[in-house]
Design a protein that fits this description.
The complex is a heterodimer of chains A (113) and B (110). Chain A has one domain (4-112): Sandwich (Immunoglobulin-like). Chain A is globular. Helices cover 0% and strands 56% of the residues of chain A. The relative contact order of chain A is 0.33. Chain A is mainly β and 113 residues long. In chain A, the strands form 2 sheets. In chain A, strands 2, 4, 5, 6, 9, 10 and 11 form a 7-stranded mixed β-sheet that branches. Helices cover 0% and strands 58% of the residues of chain B. Chain B contains no helices and 11 strands. In chain B, the strands form 2 sheets. In chain B, strands 2, 4, 5, 9, 10 and 11 form a 6-stranded mixed β-sheet that branches. In chain B, β9 and β10 (97-100) form a beta hairpin. The mean pLDDT of chain B is 94. The chains are: A mainly beta (113), B mainly beta (110).
Chain lengths: 113, 110
């Protein structure tokens, strides 16, 4: 069983489209995250949720909207996709936030054409 | 905002040579974590350091946390080709918030 699973693994879409990436963790963790990794491999935190509540929102454009229906799921919806949104998006979870290790999903490679 | 600087950006070594990557924060960290990301893979947790001056070892890997809790290092002794990947530090500033360094990409030539 995959601990943190993301779908889809690859996503190719045109500029202006709206797309969603789903994430689920079966570890019973309270905290979930979305990270963006660009072509230079920088890992930048985007959002963090703790027990379905948004606790970190790092200067991400409003086109990005996270949704946590329950503490095991954190989805990412992106409106009006732009070329600069092309990156690998990682979902992660941890038992209690930054004081413990984060478990990462396999990543979703988003390519906007 | 908080920022964690990591150097070097790249390191190419011959198998058997040692390797070190360094992380530095302008403000005091609550803890620091280290991750390894293999090419095409996802970050995998290696270790967490919490105490000032802490040193931890995992086989050929040695992790240090500075006395002021502003810097950290990862040292690999006698690198192997299986060590290839990008090593990230992640500095924790408060609950639920930690920032990744820019990573050091290690290439090991056999």
């Amino acid at each position: 069983d995959t601990a943190v699973s993301q779908t889809p693994k690859y996503l190719v879409t045109q500029m202006g489209n709206d797309k969603s990436i789903k994430c689920e963790q079966n570890l019973g963790h309270d905290t979930m995250y979305w990270y963006k990794q660009d072509s230079k491999k920088f890992l930048k935190i985007m959002f963090s949720y703790n027990n379905k509540e948004l606790i970190i929102n790092e200067t991400v454009p409003n086109r990005f909207s996270p949704k946590s229906p329950d503490k095991a799921h954190l989805n990412l919806h992106i409106n009006s996709l732009e070329l600069g949104d092309s990156a690998v998006y990682f979902c992660a979870s941890s038992p209690s936030g930054g004081v413990t290790e984060a478990f990462f999903g396999q990543g979703t490679r988003l390519t906007v054409v | 905002g908080q920022q964690v600087m990591q150097i070097p950006q790249y390191q190419h070594v011959q198998e058997g040579e040692d390797f070190t990557t360094y992380c530095n924060s302008s403000t005091t960290l609550s803890n620091i974590q280290w991750y390894k990301q293999r090419p095409g893979g996802h970050p995998v947790f290696l270790i967490q350091l919490v105490k000032s001056g802490e040193v931890k070892k995992q086989k050929r890997l040695t992790f240090q946390f500075g006395e002021a809790k502003k810097n950290s290092s990862l040292h690999i002794t006698a690198t192997q080709t299986t060590d290839v990947g990008t090593y990230f530090c992640a500095g924790g500033y408060n609950f639920n918030k930690f920032y990744f360094g820019s990573g050091t990409k290690l290439n090991v030539k056999p």
